[in-house]
Amino acid sequence: MNKSLRETTVLVTGGSRGIGAAIAERFASVGMKVAIHYLEQHESANETARRCLRHGAEVLTATADLRSREQIERMQEKLEKHGMIPDIVVNNAGISHYGMLADATEADWDNVMDINLKGMFLCTQAFMPHMVSQKYGRIINVSSVWGIAGASCEVLYSTAKGGMNAFTKALAKELAPSGITVNAVAPGPVDTEMMSGFEAGEKERIAEDIPAGRFALPEEIASLVYFLALPESGYINGQIISPNGGWLT
């Protein structure tokens, strides 16, 4: 790729907080152009943008319901208008679901699959042609360790992330001849709001089972995503990399 890092644009979906916000700021720290997608967390997205701006990066926020092709196309038009067509797409937006499968509703299933899988599909499909045309690109999907190992009481979430992993492997083979890599980062527990549904005692017991003895920091996951996005990471393709503190080996 002939572009410098400062000429390179990254789109981070679900970039208003947690892992997504850390990813956005990591790219901004080297001067990349950063597009921060969000759905409803307008002020959180603005706060993430402000932190990115402190690094001197060019930043844009954009809202879209990733379950809607029409809204993604509107977001795409906004990015193009501002000269921020993504060379790197980080599919980070997602939701979890905790509960027994017997208690899950069809609406629960549809919501988890639509946001975690359909959103990734539609967003990738929208921004992929630019990467193909320039013979370069990076698609990085933020999955979960549960997409590899499965988790009791998280069947819907595990299924969605398992699907994301399969999507990653298949698309990597499809796009490799075009100079595009597709990888997934599948973290173990990360210290974000997504873990807020667990009580303190539950989180302590989970941490005790992790050889590292703690949850990951969002910044640690962001560093791996950034590494996979670099031009020199071009031979890493179709991989599901799980930073989990030695929990799953």
From TrEMBL:
Biological-process GO terms, alphabetical: monocarboxylic acid metabolic process
Transmembrane regions listed in the UniProt entry: none
Keyword Oxidoreductase: yes
GO MF, one annotated term: oxidoreductase activity
Keyword match Iron: no
InterPro entries registered for this protein in UniProt: NAD(P)-bd_dom_sf (IPR036291), Sc_DH/Rdtase_CS (IPR020904), SDR (IPR050259), SDR_fam (IPR002347)
Gene3D superfamilies named in the record: NAD(P)-binding Rossmann-like Domain
Entry keywords, A to Z: Oxidoreductase
Family to which this protein belongs: Belongs to the short-chain dehydrogenases/reductases (SDR) family.
UniProt name for this protein: SDR family oxidoreductase
Organism expressing this protein natively: Paenibacillus antri
